[in-house]
Amino acid sequence: MKRNKGFPEQLNQQLKDYEHTIAEELSDKLADNETALRQAFANCSDLVVRKLHAFGSIPCMAVYLDVLVDDTMWESGFLGPLLNLELKDPDNPARMTEQIRTEMASVAKPVMTPSLKETVQLIVRGEVVLFLESSKQALSFSIKDQLQRPMEEPSTEAVIRGPRIGFIEKLHINMALVRHRIRTPLLKMEKITVGAVSRTEMTVVYLENKAPQNVVEEVKQRLATIDMDSILESGYIEELISDHPSSPFPVMQTTQRPDSVSASLIEGKVALLVDGSPIALIMPVTLWYGLQTVEDYYMNFIFATLLRWLRFLFAFLALTLPSAYVAITTFHQEMIPTSLALSLAAAREIVPFPAMVETLIMEITFEALREAGVRLPRPVGQTISIVGALVIGQASVQAGIISAPIIIIVSLTGIASFLIPHPGMSQAISILRFPMVLCAGTFGLYGVGAAMIAILIHLTNLNSFGVPYLSPLAPLSPSGLLDVFIRAPWKVMHKRQKHIQQKLELEKK
Amino acid sequence: MTLSRIWVGCLTLIACLGFLTGCWDRTEMDDLALVMASGLDLSEDGRVEITLQIALPTGIPSALQSGGKAAKPVLVVSAKGKDSIDALDRLQQQLSRRINLGHRGIIVVGEKYARRGFDQVLDTLLRSPESRYNSYIVTAYGTTAKKILEAPYLMEIIPSIGINKLQYSDFSLSVKTDKFIDALASFGKSPVTGAIKIMKQGAGQQTYIIDKAAVYKRNKLVGFLSGKELKAFRLVAGRSRDMKLTTQMEPPKKEYKGTVTIRLLKATPKIRTEIKNGNPEVSVSLNALGSILSNDTSMDMSKVIPLVEKKFAADLQEEITKTISHTQKKFKSDIFGFGNRIHIEHPYAWKKMKEDWDELYPKASVQVKTVMVLERVGRTQAPAHQQKK
Asked: What residues in B contact A346, CB-CB < 8 Å?
């Protein structure tokens, strides 16, 4: 599959050439190894080569990158135990290495390697590598400095009820957060490294027996085909392994919440945790996930159901309200109730632009305000709200440049787009809103209808890792609808899950 | 990469469309003259005069334009023409905004024009795509449509909305255009409309009143029904919502006028037809349910209900019989739609008589039966002035 190409082809080649120059085998001469490593890490000011004497007399050297190693661990966990070792078998250098490995196992995690290439990789990853004179094996100790921030509540997915913890940028912490919630050996976490330069680690997480084997295989296979220099965020992966990268609709769920990931895993989905990114990917998903939150499952199911209806309504409004306004006021004036028609006409009386241009101006302004609000440093943030509300909202109406109904429509649309919990889904609707307005302004409600049908056709064509995007509505599976338009009580949903499980087992037999 | 080429092609075509603005058929709200009501009159020289009442959005008070001088909420314009198209063209020449009939709720027909008879004017007025078939049609009596539309109405900002609400409440008789045209087009039923006139109320104030029904024969106005006849017509037509009926139970005395008034809760008319020796016979039966609203007699209503019921039934029978014979003798116009009933019940006989229905209808014999049931006395105690001890 020619899915993606590393963008700077040349760089990739250079890197491969460079790696080629590193010798495969370790030398048994300490000095040779040092020269080779110093050459590999030329101009790296943070490289430290410490010459030591193990067992009192055997020369050895520890090589590491200063910035990646924990200073206290280095002293108490590595240097101290190493210097206190007593020699058992002085004639056999191989046995010496083995002795260090076994006896220091209590303080760190030593790994033995005979390859120079691998030691380079280990050093880059933040391990301390120990070379012994006349030994062809190097030992690496993991005493990494855990550069991490505290786990905080994810600001983008705040809840009223629910855990306050969110993923951070460290992969193993994120893995631990998931493990803490699903305590079974059936929870599998497979590590994969992607990216020629960045060598980003990521884990494919799934529950055996729950997640369909073909989906797990498909995810792993797609990850294997990625040919990129660097993966700096899970967004790279989302785009690279997506079924439909050019569709506005997200075919993967993104979340910062471990409870959200755990819930999806139990439903039989596959999650992908990427090192360096606090955002986990969940696949496969359907359209409806964009309109659900984890909190739906924590609160009263009646209220959760009403909330879902509210989100459906406002998602629809976010998509169609501006275009419906444009279509009706410029093409189908007879559809508006008479008194409303009169006040709309009165509001439009001195406005110089056609309704479509007016709507586009205000929609673009709104998107700009929203974007400015995200990027602005917090102290300046208030300025935007004042400028937005007063200058653009009130003054433009008073000056007769923009009609008041447009302000209402645009702000209602704005609120509606913020009601969609999934940012990817919200973006999809924002993207589609503008062509909808253009269709409405040129063809009226006919255009709006045609655009809606086009979107619907597109949605039915979408697939997320083999799962139709509109399921369980199309293709219809009535029992699946218990968790789409309503949030059924847990007892009902649990019964249904058991039922499905039994059915599957029967089919296997 | 043929797919991306197709995309680029499509986008280029769409981008080109942006420059072809010539056939953009949009109309902004502020480019429309929203017609609220239109009127049809016959001018002295025999031409059609069309009057339009157009809403002026700037004259509608809103929060944005609080204060300042109140502008006029409507503009009334009229023009004469050979036919309605001609007149509308002349009107358009006076107006800077395009005439839009999408919000027309009322069509007023002047009495003179109605008596001469409808021609194609109604057709052209309704042919435009925005024109609504659910706008009300009323006949002006003793005046012209132009005068009705020019009259200010204080209760509503836009006068025609006042007429619209009067019709909507169905207090007298309201007929929508589709029903009117339906009757106009059928052999077995004659059209009726509500009839409107202006009432002077003290100094400079005036209101509309819709207290009559205009009776048409084919396309010509032949007369009006009012008062008890209108009520009888509404009862038989099944349009008796919220109707009140009064009867004289006793001869008036010093203290009492001797009348009892009831409110109709429900009235179910039933029309059956029979063909006997080739002659149509119609029987009308009416089952009515009511409750007593006022008692201005010396009687205790809870004891004399059967009496009152009988009196009302008899009254109703008399009124309905009188009204039907009135339409047979004077108007010769089947506004009750007896012909349509014959069409439904005796389709083969109807085929033979439908062409001559206008002549047959006055001769048809009509039987009227009425039953009145009073459900509630409305009050358990005797009225205050009767409680004297």
From this structure: 57-58, 60, 62, 64-65
Chain A residue nearest residue B33, CA to CA: A345
Q: Does A327 touch chain B (CB under 8 A)?
A: no
Give chain A positions within 8 Å (CB) of B28.
329-330, 348, 354-355
- Based on the fold, state whether residues A235 and A281 are members of the same structural domain: yes
Residues of chain A positioned with their CB less than 8 A from the CB of B62: 343, 346-347
Domain boundary among B189, B218, B247: B218
DSSP string of A293-353, one letter each residue = -GGGGTS-HHHHHHHHHHHHHHHHHHHHHHHHHHHHHHH-GGGS-HHHHHHHHHHHTT--S
Q: Residue A333 and residue B100: Cβ atoms within 8 Å?
A: yes
Co-location of A258 and A347 in the same domain: no
Strand pairing class (B244-248; B220-226): unpaired
- Give the residue on B whose Cα is nearest the Cα of A348: B30
**HEC readout, A153-167:** CCHHHCCCCCCCCCC
DSSP A195-251: -TTT-EEEEEEEETTTS-HHHHHHHHHHHHT---S---SHHHHHHHH-S-TTSSS-S
pLDDT band for position A5 (50/70/90)?
Answer: very low
Q: Which residue of A has its CA nearest to B156?
A: A339
- Of B195, B218, B241, which marks where a domain is finished? B218
B60 CB neighbours in chain A (<8 A) are 342-343, 346
List the single residue in B with minimal CA-CA distance to A399. Answer: B64
Do A459 and A488 have their domain in common? no
Residue B262 lies in a domain: yes
Task: Write down the ipTM of this complex.
Answer: 0.83
Please name the residues in contact with A391: beta carbons below 8 A apart, sequence gap of 6 or more.
none
Give the residue on B whose Cα is nearest the Cα of A337: B103
A274 DSSP β-pair partners? A202
Residue listed under structure tokens 């899915």:
A3
Task: List the single residue in B24, B36, B103 with the smallest CB-CB distance to A442.
Answer: B24
Do A445 and A318 sit in the same domain of this protein? yes
Q: What's the domain range around B127?
A: 27-218
* Statement to judge: residues B138 and B97 lie in one domain: yes
- pLDDT tens digits for A415-453? 999 999 999 999 999 999 999 999 999 889 999 999 999
Same-domain check for residues B59 and B173: yes
Full residue range of the structural domain in which residue A259 is found: 155-285
Chain A residues touching B105 at Cβ < 8 A: 338
- Whether B256 and B200 map to the same domain: the answer is no
Indicate if the pLDDT at residue B139 is higher than 50: yes
Write down which residue in A260, A285, A310 finishes a domain: A285
Q: Are residues A169 and A270 part of one domain?
A: yes
* Lookup result for tokens 């599976």: A477
A19 and A109 share one domain? yes
Is A15 a domain residue? Answer: yes
Residue A281 sits in the same domain as residue A311:
no
Assigned domain for B6 exists: no
- Give the rounded percent of residues in chain B with a pLDDT score beyond 70: 92
The 3 state secondary structure assigned to A405-466 is: HHHHHHHHHHHHHHCCCCHHHHHHHHHHHHHHHHHHHHHCHHHHHHHHHHHHHHHHHCEECC
Question: Is the CB of residue A148 less than 8 Å from the CB of residue A168?
Answer: yes
Q: What residues of chain A lie within 8 A of the CB of B55, using their CB?
A: 342, 345
Residues B159, B239 share a domain: no
Which of these, A415, A448, A420, lies nearest to A432 by C-alpha position? Answer: A448
Task: Give residue-wise pLDDT tens across range A365-403.
Answer: 999 888 888 888 878 877 877 887 787 888 888 888 899
**CB nearest to A349's CB, from B17, B36, B57:** B57
> Are B334 and B190 contacting, i.e. CB atoms less than 8 angstroms apart?
yes
Helix and strand counts by DSSP (H, E) for chain A: 19, 12
Interchain contact, A346 vs B62, CB within 8 Å: yes
